[in-house]
Specification:
The chain is an all-alpha fold. It contains 17 helices and no strands. 84% of the residues lie in helices and 0% in strands. The radius of gyration is 21 Å and the shape is globular. The chain starts with 13 loop residues before the first helix and ends with a helix.
Length: 456
């Protein structure tokens, strides 16, 4: 197994760590960028169909983003577990953990779907524009049924990342996204004999793509030689309470941390809805484009978590530190690139998505707070994943609560409605929350690494 010699082959020196991080991280980033391209295409296609549909999609997508990011974070708990076992070459236990993860994620998906259905029946009570509700409801229901496939896919993806196979998930994601874009074109606009379904068609396309991606990963795991060493442990390993509880203990704090971060954006979307449909449309456009930075940072940060967990399994703490440090340097470079790019195209972004001059003007105004929060986003991405890689996730939920619920959300209300800054005020609160979270994660990482090194 490749993992047997991880300690013997410990990579020293910054250049070597950077190279390894790019080897692992680039496929993750490409897969993440594929998600962004899909999201941008979704927003463009819906926006060209109608501004009302774009505003409705903004609300529903942001509500579901909260659940999807939580479920993704919950699945992230599997990565350091598999990464550490991979470092010890324990392939049978890797397979058993995947089986337990699939069962746990299936149960979690059913709970989340139940909660989201309760929200659906009360959607009229959330203060959104009345004229958008008939568009929101069918789109919401279709996305609801896709949640189970999101969680099952995440189990396979985090398992693959943990064994350093980041290429397979990338290929499946890109193929699924391409399918989704084509299905969007067919179902939103009624092309090639398909019915013209508008926003509901976009939802059906998303559901179909998520089912397809999940089935593809199942096929790859059952057939591919790359996964053959793990199939025995998967078949013979039993679903058991001990492993399930352990995975929940690892995944729940990360899921809540990421969920709270997303909640600060999703709950902010509700406040944006109080401003009006035009603000909602501009907010959705900027959130869609803004994912470019977040997905890039998290792609590289996921590689940091994988590499750090491999070295933790081999008890190679100097290379854990080197990995985390080099990962942050790479992310800072990405922050600079994203910031310059967004400032350059600031006055053109809105017109890519809609012909509404008012919406486009609002988009250009909130690019500035977007650029301001890039450093904080990169900081929290790197060090939250560093904590995940060294299996120290106990405090991340509390740190996220402080950063996003104590700092960011109240600041958004203050800036937007008390100080009268509107949509720009809500966006000015994001740098405060993200930077606060990043500093707390960084401090915890330093403290934990000192503890590990002291016990050597």
């Amino acid at each position: 197994m490749p993992g047997i010699n991880i300690k013997m082959n410990s990579i020293t020196g910054t250049r070597s760590q950077v190279k390894e991080l790019f080897r692992l991280g680039l496929p993750i980033m490409v897969g993440q960028l594929g998600i962004i391209i899909l999201s941008i295409a979704d927003t463009m296609m819906v926006g060209w169909y109608g501004t009302a549909e774009l505003a409705a999609a903004s609300f529903v997508n942001n509500v579901f983003n909260l659940v999807i990011i939580f479920s993704t974070g919950f699945s992230y708990g599997l990565t350091p577990v598999i990464g550490s076992l991979y470092g010890k070459a324990d392939v049978d236990k890797c397979g058993r953990m995947l089986r337990n993860s699939l069962c746990v994620n299936l149960l979690v998906s059913l709970v989340l779907m139940s909660l989201m259905f309760l929200l659906y029946v009360n959607i009229h009570s959330l203060g959104q524009p009345e004229e958008l509700l008939p568009l929101m409801r069918p789109y919401y229901i279709v996305l609801l049924f896709s949640l189970v496939f999101v969680l099952l896919f995440n189990s396979f993806k985090q398992f693959s990342d943990g064994i350093t196979d980041t290429v397979t998930p990338m290929c499946i994601l890109l193929g699924g996204n391409l399918f989704n874009i084509i299905a969007n074109w067919l179902l939103i606009y009624g092309k090639m004999g398909f019915p013209r379904m508008g926003l509901t068609g976009a939802g059906i396309a998303t559901l179909s793509a998520r089912v397809l991606m999940c089935l593809c990963f199942v096929a790859v795991f059952l057939i591919s030689n790359r996964y053959k060493p793990y199939r025995n442990g998967f078949r013979n390993g039993h679903v058991n309470k001990r492993d399930a509880i352990f995975l929940c203990r690892m995944g729940m704090p990360v899921g809540l941390q990421m969920g709270m971060e997303t909640a600060s954006f999703s709950l902010s979307t509700i406040m944006v809805g109080w401003i009006g449909a035009t603000a909602l449309a501009a907010h959705q456009i900027m959130l869609t484009v803004g994912q470019v930075g977040f997905m890039m940072y998290y792609g590289m940060a996921a590689a940091v978590a994988v590499r750090a967990s491999n070295f933790m399994g081999a008890t190679d703490y100097p290379n854990v530190r080197c990995t985390v440090s080099d990962g942050f340097k790479i992310i800072l470079g990405m922050v600079a690139i994203v910031s310059v790019l967004m400032l350059t195209v600031r006055n053109h972004i809105g017109s890519w998505f809609t012909d509404s001059t008012e919406v486009a003007m609002m988009v250009s105004q909130i690019v500035i707070p977007f650029v301001i929060y890039q450093f904080g986003d990169g900081l929290q991405s790197n060090y939250s994943n560093a904590l995940r890689g060294i299996s120290d996730v106990k405090m991340v939920t509390w740190y996220a609560f402080i950063a996003y619920f104590v700092v960011s959300l109240p600041a958004g209300y203050l800036f937007a409605f008390v100080l009268g800054l509107g949509l720009t005020g809500i966006w000015l609160s994001f740098p405060l929350g993200l930077t606060c979270a990043g500093l707390l994660f960084w401090s915890r990482y330093r403290k934990t690494m000192k503890k590990y090194e002291k016990n050597v």
